Amino acid sequence: MAELPRRIIKETQRLMAEPVTGIQAVPDESNARYFKVVVAGPKDSPYEGGTFNLELFLPDDYPMAPPKVRFMTKIYHPNIDKLGRICLDILKDKWSPALQIRTVLLSIQALLSAPNPDDPLANDVAEQWKTNEAQAIKTAKEWTRIYAVNS
Amino acid sequence: MGSCLSGSPTEDFTRLRTEDSHDLESTPTRNNRRSSDSHRTGGHQQRRTAYHPTPGIQRTASQLSEDDQVKIAQRIGLIQHLPTGLYYNDSSKKTRECAICMLDFEVGDLMRFLPCLHAYHKDCIDDWLMRSFTCPSCMEPVDAALLSSFDG
């Protein structure tokens, strides 16, 4: 079994010691590269009041390659598709090894506050967002209530 | 913009967990850095055997196209032009930690210095520069002018 790089240990320790407000990231007991993440829907966004589960995986070549992150909770967002895949530049071509789990999660939190329908992943959602934003926000709120509010 | 839609539809987000098994067979990489630094001036890439002609694309040497081989050879040449040196203790320095491996710099560590004045462990930054010729901290192209003259 490959030894866990010290960077991953250090990042995990810092995440535990100084968590990001509204974000919880806990490594899996059996695999320290796999994190269960819970993001609180940002205030004044259609996702407010919801808690969104994500999974984050650090590939073998992390930090040379970005973490793989996916929403497990259904969400109505132009940059997140129905499989939970996220369209975020720093998770793709704008990745840099100076970025960290913390910065990635902060960026995802910011994406919830500021959807970007001009760079869509979910085309139908983006279309709705551009043509009828009020309706899109209403749907996003509904989905939040249905899928992201703990019963 | 819109780059996410052009990505391969088979891109693997749905099987994050199955990748766990890779842990078992992955090779040790940077963990033994300190013990073997002095012998690894140019051997880093060879040892890894995986090349990244463009970020996110991984190829073994035999899978590389001729163009990619040329590109990689040029990149290796460009990297060699960037100054290196040993870390020494200087209380005026702010950076104490390598932004890539997140280990504290120690006196005698082999460093590489980029034109933007950011510095990293040589092995850490060389590994990255082979993937992307940008500074991880400020995202500045390491030497856009030099690079474009090579790329044509």
UniProtKB/TrEMBL annotation, chain A:
Taxonomic superkingdom: Eukaryota
UBC core domain span: 3-149
Entries under SUPFAM superfamilies matching the protein: UBC-like
Pfam families: UQ_con (PF00179)
PROSITE patterns in UniProt: UBC_1 (PS00183), UBC_2 (PS50127)
Active site per UniProt: 87
Gene Ontology terms for molecular function: ATP binding; transferase activity
Example GO BP: protein ubiquitination
Keywords noted in UniProt: ATP-binding, Nucleotide-binding, Transferase, Ubl conjugation pathway
InterPro entries: UBC, UBQ-conjugating_AS, UBQ-conjugating_enzyme/RWD
Family, per entry: Belongs to the ubiquitin-conjugating enzyme family.
Protein's name in the database: UBC core domain-containing protein
Species of the source: Bugula neritina (Brown bryozoan)
Lineage summary: Eukaryota, Metazoa, Spiralia, Lophotrochozoa, Bryozoa
From TrEMBL, chain B:
Biological process, per Gene Ontology: ubiquitin-dependent protein catabolic process
Domain RING-type: 98-138
Organism (species): Bugula neritina
Protein name per the record: RING-type domain-containing protein
Bias-annotated ranges (Basic and acidic residues): 12-25
Region (Disordered): 1-66
Comp. bias intervals (Polar residues): 1-11
Gene Ontology, cellular component aspect: ubiquitin ligase complex
Protein origin, superkingdom: Eukaryota
SUPFAM superfamilies: RING/U-box
GO MF annotation, one: zinc ion binding
Zinc-finger recorded as keyword: yes
Keywords for the protein's UniProt record, in alphabetical order: Metal-binding, Zinc, Zinc-finger
Family matches, as CDD domains: RING-H2_RNF11
Biased amino acid composition, Basic residues: 41-50
A Pfam cross-reference name: zf-RING_2
InterPro entries in UniProt: RNF11_RING-H2, UEC_component, Znf_RING, Znf_RING/FYVE/PHD
